């Protein structure tokens, strides 16, 4: 009986594993296997932004650019390392950095 | 959800008062962020916290946060806070003042609150000028700096708020800048959890009134100056006075255990009650 149970368990585990894998791949690129770079997305909340330019001036990877009117925009979010400097220093709480394909903020 | 959005939804009155009134790039906004992150880390409930503020740009902070709040008269934030704390000693009272509010109009209250070592957290936002009222020089405006009331250069010397608080007898005194926001989070968190009068001098910038008049550039340039001029207190110990010229130290300046006014008052009440019941 015990042996049979063990066999059953052994049969179940790979299935469960494969199910988990399928869930992971289904949820997107954020949960890629270790070794691959995490991707981040920079959201700028225009209604609160006053275009002070602090985020663009201090971003260590220069991901954020300023347009003709001086408003910031995510120039190249693939360079973003998710350090959160812009989030910490935005005086107007108008910028947020999140991992790609993670839950979107509720507005 | 991004961490910042969660905090904004939890602690700020985001659906009523935003965007805030401060100038673009103002340090008060960065300090407000530090404050809500520090409070979130302490794990205190919103009803356990009272935010008291005075008059000035920094006084607007009490309007934006979703705690028990008091927006008081000029310079008297500490006196209102003392009353709140003595009325209900279980509350964590955080006082936010500007440099003029704390050291000029409320200078007397500031040194005496420090001397009594009342269990309050005082955050002094130091931007070297009276920003809201039109750029008059304040007690922390440096010697020689230009302001609307010192058109030929300030002939007075400035206060060092943190050192003043140390000498006045505060239990914990620290200094941070809005550029070093993560350090400021730590300092505010420690100050809230400290038993006794805890002062945090948060160096900020006023590029609209102070920076423009003194040709120091905008918010970005003034933040760069904070980065260059600030020295961690551990590092400053191994530096010579010449190297420290024109710089300032950041970190915890003093942390000492002194008798706390609110606890001493409670002891006094209990002993008086025991005497009264003994007399009967």
Short description:
With 107 residues, chain A is α+β, with helices and mostly antiparallel strands. Helices cover 34% and strands 15% of the residues of chain A.
Which structural traits does this protein have?
heterodimer, A: 107 residues, Alpha-Beta Plaits, two-stranded antiparallel sheet, two-stranded antiparallel ribbon, globular, B: alpha/beta, Rossmann fold, 8-stranded mixed β-sheet
Structural overview:
The complex is a heterodimer of chains A (107) and B (280). Chain A has 107 residues and is α+β, with helices and mostly antiparallel strands. Chain A has 2 domains: 1-30; 37-107, 2-Layer Sandwich (Alpha-Beta Plaits). Helix content of chain A is 34%, strand content 15%. Chain A has a two-stranded antiparallel sheet with strand order 1-4. In chain A, strands 2-3 form a two-stranded antiparallel sheet. Chain A is globular and about 35 Å long. Chain B is α/β, with parallel strands linked by helices and 280 residues long. Chain B has a single domain (3-233, 240-279), classed as Rossmann fold (3-Layer(aba) Sandwich). Chain B has an 8-stranded mixed β-sheet with strand order 2-1-3-4-8-7-10-9, sandwiched between helices. In chain B, strands 5-6 form a two-stranded antiparallel sheet. In chain B, strand 7, helix 8 (181-193) and strand 8 (198-203) form a beta-alpha-beta unit. Chain B is globular and about 70 Å long. Classes of the chains: A alpha+beta (107), B alpha/beta (280).
Topology:
The complex is a heterodimer of chains A (107) and B (280).
Chain A: H1 2-27, E1 40-44, H2 54-58, E2 64-66, E3 72-74, H3 85-89, E4 95-99
Antiparallel strand pairs in A: 1-4, 2-3
Chain B: H1 3-11, H2 27-42, E1 49-53, H3 61-64, E2 68-71, H4 77-87, E3 92-98, H5 99-105, H6 107-116, E4 121-126, E5 129-130, E6 136-137, H7 161-168, E7 172-177, H8 181-193, E8 198-203, H9 207-213, H10 219-229, E9 230-232, H11 233-236, E10 248-255, H12 261-279
Parallel strand pairs in B: 1-2, 1-3, 3-4, 4-8, 7-8, 9-10
Antiparallel strand pairs in B: 5-6, 7-10
Helix pairs in contact in B: 2-8, 5-6, 6-7
């Amino acid at each position: 009986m015990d042996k049979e149970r063990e066999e059953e368990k052994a049969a179940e585990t790979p299935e469960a594993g494969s199910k988990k894998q399928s869930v992971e791949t289904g949820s997107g690129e954020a949960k890629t296997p270790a070794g691959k770079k995490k991707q981040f997305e920079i959201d700028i909340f225009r209604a609160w932004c006053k275009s002070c330019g602090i985020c663009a001036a201090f971003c260590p990877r220069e991901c954020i650019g300023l347009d003709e009117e001086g408003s910031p925009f995510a120039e190249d979010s693939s360079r973003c390392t998710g350090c959160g400097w812009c989030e910490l220093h935005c005086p107007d709480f108008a910028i947020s950095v999140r991992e790609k394909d993670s839950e979107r903020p509720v507005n | 959800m991004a961490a910042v959005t969660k905090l904004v939804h939890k602690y700020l009155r985001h659906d009523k008062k935003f965007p805030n009134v401060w100038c673009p790039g103002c340090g008060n906004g960065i300090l407000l962020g530090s404050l809500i992150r520090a409070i979130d880390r302490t794990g205190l409930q919103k009803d356990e916290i009272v935010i008291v503020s005075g008059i000035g740009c920094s006084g607007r902070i009490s309007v934006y946060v979703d705690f028990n709040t008091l927006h008081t008269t000029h310079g008297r934030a500490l006196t209102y806070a003392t009353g709140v704390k003595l009325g209900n000693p279980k509350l964590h009272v955080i006082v936010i003042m500007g440099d003029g509010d704390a050291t000029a109009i409320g200078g007397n209250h500031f040194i005496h609150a420090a001397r009594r070592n009342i269990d309050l957290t005082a955050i002094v936002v130091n931007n070297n000028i009276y920003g809201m009222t039109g750029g008059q020089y304040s007690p922390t405006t440096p010697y020689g700096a230009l302001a609307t009331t010192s058109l030929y250069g300030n002939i007075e010397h400035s206060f060092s708020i943190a050192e003043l608080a140390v000498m006045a007898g505060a239990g914990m005194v620290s200094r941070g800048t809005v550029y070093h926001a993560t350090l400021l989070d730590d300092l505010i968190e420690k100050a809230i959890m400290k038993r006794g009068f805890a002062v945090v001098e948060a160096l900020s910038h006023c590029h609209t009134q102070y920076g423009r008049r003194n040709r120091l550039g905008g918010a970005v340039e003034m933040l760069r100056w904070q980065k260059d001029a600030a020295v961690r207190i551990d590092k400053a110990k191994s530096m010579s006075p010449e190297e420290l010229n024109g710089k300032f130290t950041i970190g915890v300046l003093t942390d000492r255990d002194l008798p706390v006014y609110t606890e001493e008052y409670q002891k006094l009440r209990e002993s008086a009650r025991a005497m009264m019941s003994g007399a009967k």
